[in-house]
Design brief:
Blueprint lengths: L1 H26 L4 H15 L5 H13 L4 H44 L3 H29 L3 H15 L5 H43 L1
């Protein structure tokens, strides 16, 4: 009985991962970045599988790896929740709608591609997707940009990618290197302050003893 309930519980979480990411894949239009607000809503607020900091780590890692951020995020979240099988369930869920819809679209595109209603719908969809991506950017900024240093890096990355056309991976690598240097310098200063404070305390204690 216990084994059966354990198996059914395992199957249920795999089915949940597949179904939840399938819904995200089928109802979110506009690519990987447009899915991030929906994934964040699902994982952090609805299912509480992760907290905000863990979700930010997921986004950062998924963005810095090869591939589409939504698929990488689904794989990452599935692995965290239920191991390799969980990652397979979540990844298949988020990929399956696109696979099915693209095949259908290519099949019928010749018939509907010039339809004025279809073209009008795509105009509206593109605008809505831009809004979704902007919401994601604002939410991420509020959650992760907590210092002047981080704001400077974010603005520099925006300029490098948006204006100078630098590949995103190089901006991410540069940000990681800058973060390591900044954190090392800051920790070094904190240690010097602690050592200086300890020396002053010892000097004060020595003076009191001599008195």
């Amino acid at each position: 009985m216990g084994k059966d309930s354990g198996k059914s519980g395992g199957i249920k979480i795999y089915a949940t991962l597949f179904w939840e990411f399938f819904k995200i894949g089928i109802f979110t239009i506009g690519g990987g970045m447009a899915m991030i607000p929906q994934i964040q809503q699902l994982v952090v607020q609805d299912k509480k599988w992760m907290d905000e900091d863990e979700m930010l780590d997921c986004i950062a890692i998924s963005q810095s790896m090869p591939g589409v951020i939504a698929i990488n995020s689904a794989t990452y979240i599935g692995k965290r929740i239920r191991g390799v099988k969980g990652s397979l369930a979540a990844t298949l869920g988020v990929v399956m709608p696109s696979f099915i819809i693209i095949i259908l679209a290519v099949t019928v595109l010749g018939a509907i591609g010039e339809n004025k209603y279809i073209l009008g719908a795509f105009v509206g969809v593109k605008a809505a997707v831009c809004g979704l991506i902007l919401v994601t950017a604002v939410r991420l900024a509020k959650q992760s940009l907590n210092s002047v240093f981080q704001w400077v890096l974010a603005i520099a990355a925006f300029i490098a990618i948006g204006i100078f056309g630098i590949t995103a991976i190089w901006a991410i690598i540069a940000g990681a290197v800058a973060g390591i240097i900044y954190n090392s310098v800051r920790l070094g200063k904190c240690r010097k302050i602690e050592i200086t404070g300890d020396d002053e305390d010892n000097a004060d204690e020595g003076g009191e003893v001599r008195r």
